[in-house]
Amino acid sequence: MFRFFMALGLLVSAVAAILVVWAHQLPGVMRPDHDAPRSYLIINAGLLDPATGSVQANGHVMVIDGRIARTGTGALPARPDGVETIDAGGRVLMPGLIDMHVHVFDETDLAAGLARGVTTVRNMGGFPFHLPLAARIERGEILGPRLLTTGPILNEVGGRNGNLLHEAVEGADEARASVRRQYAAGFRDLKLYSNLSRESFAAIRDEAAILGMTMSGHPVEGTEADPVDFAVSLDAGFRTLEHTESIVWHALNDETDPEGVRQLARQIAASGTMIDPTLVVHENLARIVETGGAHISRPAMASYNPVVAGFEQENFEFWSHYPHDDRTSMQAFYVEVTAALHEAGVRLTVGTDSGVMATPHGVSTVREMELLVDAGLTASEAIRAATLNGAEALGLDGQIGCLAAGCAADLILVAGDPTQDIAWLYQVDAVMRDGRWLDRDTLAGLEEAGHHPSSLRTWWRLGQHLRAIG
After folding, report:
1. Residue 354: DSSP 8-state
2. Which of 381, 414, 413, 387 is nearest to 399 (CA)?
3. Residue 348 has what DSSP assignment?
4. Which of 20, 252, 302, 418 could crosslink 451 through cysteines, CB 3.0-4.6 Å?
5. Are 95 and 409 in contact (CB under 8 A)?
6. Percent over 70 (pLDDT), the chain
7. Backbone angles phi, psi at 346, to 5 degrees
């Protein structure tokens, strides 16, 4: 009998080990070729510098070991030994896109983003696997966008719209302890959710200042018994305040008065707070309502994680049978509010909430830029929001999102000029990530990899996360 149970135990351990190994297998296209060069001279390119918003013809970019060494037009520089030449064929070369608000549940989310020219993402809700994954990408072991992440989402016990993936706190002591735990785990940016109490919010803010951590997230509303004024979030030093939708809810109580919108825009501009509108995620909700749920099965959803979709099924059912048209009218209003923010001088970034609410990675980033253009930004201003503004918000200005000596060689080659029509960003012909040149075939492979998220990996990560926030 003892031998039977020993054999059974060994069998179970072996199966578990096999499942763990299988759960960590990645598509081959996401494994970089370490024999491939990371130094290139790109010639015959239209150079789109987001700092000027213009395109210079007959340009060239020298990349050495994954960083831009020089840019210019006209006569070509001498090409050092070991530097390969790429002829851009007159197409437009520009910095890769920065998506400031995504939810990564699987490595294939990163493949889907990179296939569409997204070279940096900020994950807004950290799990235990995110920091090690970011380190592996940084070391060149995995091909994907640069991955930055906040810690687990901080919310109040019993908070409205909270869920089991949030790290729930109750009062100052628990709030401080959660911040310290996230710091010890390696996180340096906190994500705050709407329903934190005044006491918890103050404790999080103070502890973050002591530890040198930054904060981003929803405007903090407080509790029903003790609401927090919107101005408190503006004074808290957030890197970015998320969601035009949430701002309208908290600051305007969903009122659509034009003068109230203008006053709010001036208030935010005076605070210097950067706003990440994430218009596309609510647009997808509105489309679900308009189509009676058909929007959920559109072709772009091929990369959507089935585990997440399962969790969201009840929500999808609710909105698929929602009998009102207010989501369409509110979507138009959120675009109007974003226009007012821009007109008042508020700096905007590009974020999507990709990974949740029927918003797939990659393609949604370009759609968000189109919505910013709908809000009155020029195409060049939308490109700046997706490059330089995102870099500044992340504390990485001069390092990413730029086209100049010293910047990371995270570049995209576009078939046409997106300063004339932002929709050209749907036609990315090549991507350079950390000096690695990814041609059209490689991008197609990444796109296909993005269509196969692993349910096993996702369940494994969810379990790790729930144990961590326990």
Report:
1. B
2. 387
3. B
4. 302
5. no
6. 94
7. -70, 130
Q: What is the DSSP letter of 301?
A: G
Greatest Cα pair distance in the chain: 82
What do you get for the CA distance between the two ends of the chain, in Å? 37
Region for 253 from its dihedrals, namely left if φ exceeds 0, alpha if ψ lies in -120 to 50, beta otherwise: left
pLDDT at 24: 58
392 exposure class (CB count in 10 Å sphere: 0-12, 13-18, 19+): middle
Distance between CA 443 and CA 362 in Å, rounded? 12
Asked whether the whole model's pTM tops 0.85, one would answer yes
**Residues 6 or more apart whose Cβ sits within 8 Å of residue 157:** 168, 169, 170
Q: Residues near 416 by Cβ (< 8 Å), separated by ≥ 6? A: 91, 92, 424, 427
Q: What is the CATH number of domain 96-402?
A: 3.20.20.140
Mean per-residue pLDDT of the chain? 93
Distance, in Å, from the CA atom of 244 to the CA atom of 81, rounded to the nearest integer, reads 50
- What whole-number distance in Å separates Cα of residue 319 and Cα of residue 314? 9
Joined tokens for residue 251: 């600051």
Residue 83 has pLDDT above 60, yes or no: yes
H or E segment to which residue 99 belongs: strand 97-102
The CA–CA distances, whole Å, from 306 to 126, 315, 446, 465 equal 19, 14, 18, 18
Span 159-213, pLDDT tens digits? 766 677 899 999 999 999 999 999 999 999 999 999 999 999 999 999 999 999 9
For 9-51, how does the pLDDT look when each residue is reduced to its tens digit (9 = 90+)?
Answer: 334 333 443 444 444 578 999 999 888 889 999 999 999 999 9
Give me the residue label for tokens 């706190």: 169
What one-letter code names the amino acid at 330?
Answer: M
In a 3-state reduction of DSSP, which class is residue 428?
strand
Please tell me whether residue 347 adopts helix, strand or coil conformation: coil
- Say how far apart CA 182 and CA 176 lie, in whole Å: 10
Distances (CA, A) of 6 to 15, 18, 19: 14, 18, 20
Instruction: Point out which residues pair with 84 in neighbouring strands.
Output: 40
Domain boundaries, the chain: 96-402
State the Cα torsion 309-332-344-103 to the nearest 10°: 0
Integer Rg of the chain from CA: 23
